[in-house]
Amino acid sequence: MYKTRIHEIIWFPYRPERTVIGPLLLLLLIAVGATGAVNAIDLFGLINSNVAAKNAENLASWMNIVLLLLCLIFCIYSARQDYMSVYAALLPCLVTTAVIVALSLYFGSGKLDKKSLFQAAAGTLGSLMFVGRVVQSGGVDLGALGAIRRRIERKIQLCLQTPVADSSFATPRKELVDDVRKLADELKKAAPEIVNQTSAEKAIKSLQDFLARSDVVSHDDFVQDLNEGKDSLVQALKQIDGRRYDGS
To answer: Rounded distance, CA 80 to CA 26, Å?
Structure first.
């Protein structure tokens, strides 16, 4: 699941209470990447003067790949509040990184070579680090909801692996139900900020239905309700796993 429409396409800190700050920060990102602030760091010239030409080319290529991967990783880390899962954040953050690096190249050197790409990527990484640490998105933290969902998945496996006849089964069952209740409550609060509210409402209803059944069923029926049938808890979690734009 995504927090807002902008996050379906490209990640960027979005604060509903400050409608102007988004465009301003985007301009900042492009400007920092295009300033040529790292022009003095002639790493590729240093490499070429110390290693063989073929090795220097390979090393320069790998340096750019690593730097671009760092941009993507830090973008995903910075966007953690706006997506239910890393999977959901991957494509928008990939677009974010590519767009900002491309614009930084265009407004910076205007050409595509290893040194220019390094400079644009370095500027992008620096500005992403600034925005990610200083200017977080506003509103509900979907990343925290994703953490609860993943914890529920682990506890489902624990319940499935624990014999229902064992006296200790009551403990993981109670912990699982408590986490499902917390997820349902938090998802209900987050629903107005989620792109597909219909999907969120369906997920909330599925979780609430599971909670209602869990109050009255036996341990055996509880285990069956975890992963068997279209109304199971596993199916309810699939509605909010963030792997599709409609959240289903």
So the answer is: 18
